[in-house]
């Protein structure tokens, strides 16, 4: 346990605070993304830092990174003072650059889709009569 980390205790408490299932915590442990202490009782115990780490893992998965890439990336994300670490090697930097470029393309695609939806919504709002029924439940 790092200096300054508060012990949270049981997996259920950590999972609840991080907004994930206990199963996710176990999965992250198997993938070497998250570690827990095992006192004599054998149950996993987590520190308060685990909640932030789980949230970071969730963000990276949501961005489309795979577990093995996340495992390589996590040690490079924060140093002991909380700032970015400089431990990434040139191969990881190259891989992360590819990931960042992919994410930028996805963001661009999403912005274009949103612009198209806005245009359709605006056009339909001007011409369509007001409906009170749920359009999904209407039959053709």
Automatic annotation (TrEMBL):
SUPFAM superfamilies assigned to the protein according to its UniProt record, in alphabetical order: Putative DNA-binding domain (SSF46955)
Residue ranges of every copy of the HTH merR-type domain listed in the record: 15-76
Domain of life of the organism encoding this protein: Bacteria
Pfam families linked: MerR_1 (PF13411)
Record has DNA-binding as a keyword: yes
Keyword DNA-binding appears in the UniProt entry: yes
Keywords: DNA-binding
Stated name of the protein: MerR family transcriptional regulator
Lineage: Bacteria, Bacillati, Actinomycetota, Actinomycetes, Kitasatosporales
């Amino acid at each position: 346990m790092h200096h300054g980390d508060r012990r949270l205790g049981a997996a259920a408490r950590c999972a609840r605070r991080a907004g994930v299932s206990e199963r996710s915590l176990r999965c992250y442990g198997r993938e070497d993304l998250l570690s827990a202490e095992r006192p004599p009782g054998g149950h996993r115990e987590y520190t308060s830092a685990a909640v932030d780490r789980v949230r970071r893992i969730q963000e990276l998965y949501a961005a489309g990174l795979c577990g093995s890439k996340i495992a390589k990336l996590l040690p490079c994300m924060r140093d002991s003072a909380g700032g970015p670490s400089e431990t990434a090697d040139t191969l990881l930097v190259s891989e992360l650059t590819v990931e960042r470029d992919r994410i930028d393309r996805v963001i661009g695609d999403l912005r274009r889709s949103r612009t198209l939806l806005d245009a359709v919504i605006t056009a339909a709002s001007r011409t369509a009569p007001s409906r009170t029924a749920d359009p999904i439940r209407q039959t053709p």
